[in-house]
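Q: What structure does this chain adopt?
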Amino acid sequence: MSTLNGILELSKRSLMAHQLVANVIGNNVANVNTPGYSRQVANLVPSPSVQTAWGPMGTGVEVGDVSRYRDAFLDLQYRQSVSKQAHWEALSRSLSEVEAMFNDPGESGLQAALDEFWNAWSDLANDPENTTARAVVREKGMALAATFRRIGNYLREHIQAVDSEARKLVADANAALREVADLNSKIQFVRAQGGSANELMDQRDRLLDQLSEWIGARALVSTDGSVRVLVGTEVLVEAAEARPIQIHDLGEQEMALAQFLGPSGAPLGLVECKLSGLLEVRDAALRSYLAELDEIVGTLVREVNLRHRQGYTLKGERAGDFFESTALSATQIRLADGILEDLTNIAASSEDTLGDNQVALSIASLRSAKVMRGSDSLLEAYSSLIGRLGSLSAQAEDSVRNQEVITQTLENQRARVQGVSLDEEMVELIKFQHAYRASAQVARVVDEMMQAVLAMVR
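A:
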């Protein structure tokens, strides 16, 4: 290597190495705005030295490898944070929509409809034979039933919409799991050939970010470069094999809702993520509210009908039901046909005598009667439901705001590690440009030395 040709070879090796470094820097600059791109660096290492009479002699420089800047711990923290944020966002969005639909306290809310219904019965008690007062009782009864049906139908439709969103989310997650398995296979192949799989690993990391957000997946990197993807104890990706999440219909309460199971057939052990947020909205919130609303309707229908059947119509006949007795849910409640057909069928008196208002008073007293589980009135039970809805919605909004701050902080930290800084890349480019020029200068000087030797022998 101490020969002039050896020095020329050393210079050539240096020029090639620095040219490759410039190529890597150029690639970083080109991808400065590419989402998910990780900054790359060409690691220079000394070429193997050779033994000479004067000891080991260096042979220049070469590129050891091209690696990515990535912090596995930051990736883990970011994915955990974005997973929690997605959970609370799913809750907050749905609960805000439900709150707006209930519109309580408000003029078109259920609370106002209940108040007007009891007021109508109180007015009828003041003038039991008054046709106008009877018309108002029927009108307010119809309005109350319509409000219950509107809320009940909305809750059912919203439950099914959330269920549909969860199904699509899991279908997308299953597709992403298959992509991760495919990328595992490609990365293993490239690495086995001694190549760099940086771009493939970036693609896989973007998918792992999404899977963390969607289903709270976590990834474990194996020594062969592949990743295992897990949710709870269920392994969803192992090397090149993807094991999709199974979707089963529950079919409860006339709604074919989905249940999500791992490859083993056991329910997924979800941490906080978008899917867990959707399932909490669907099962713990909306279905619970609908069931409670049905209970309020059932109690209302039974208690009103019980009192109404004890009275007499304006024609002096024994009264029937006020509400349809078989329609005991929020989506079905309606007035009985006899009330809809004839106002005189409304019972205000407890005896076959004019001027008696005991039934009207009894029904009006349901406003404050503890008929719900023996401890609450109908209005108190409904107010409790609205209170819990508002409390959970406010908690979800606060959690979203707090988690956004944490996620943004982690995202900025991650960007500082793996993101491309044009200033840094320019400084590196200038540094390696000088090294490239110096190597070329060495080659030029060697050329002059060789010319001098050749001139001596001419």
